[in-house]
Specification:
InterPro entries: ABRA-related, WW_dom, WW_dom_sf. Interacts (via N-terminus) with ATRIP. Interacts with ATM, ATR and MDC1. Interacts with XPA (via N-terminus) upon UV irradiation. Interacts with CEP83, CCDC92, TTBK2, DVL3, NPHP3 and weakly with NPHP4. Interacts with DZIP1. This is Centrosomal protein of 164 kDa. Helices cover about 40% and strands about 20% of the residues. By secondary structure, it is α+β, with helices and mostly antiparallel strands. It has one domain. The chain is elongated and about 60 Å long.
Amino acid sequence: MTAAALIGDQLILEEDYDESYSPSEQELQEYAREIGIDPISEPELLWLAREGIAAPMPPEWKPCQDVTGDIYYFNFSSGQSTWDHPCDEHYRRLVEQERERGQLAAAAGGARSR
């Protein structure tokens, strides 16, 4: 991230998005846990972590740095701020949806085999 502007004592940053970014296995595992995936017992959901960790920030959001150096995210359209990357909640919901889809498929498969 690079500095773009200073508003009061808050530094507004610009995301340096790299389309060719490939996370390390450790980064992928950590992000998977962050969005609710157990990488050991749910390897079939790791594609969501791989997609989420490399997702670009929505255009209305900017990373910001406070006076202590901590990074947070601010939506300049709505005024909302969050400590989590703005895409994280979206990927948490996708994890839940995929989990439900898998459970429904397993239940349907089990019902057919009876």
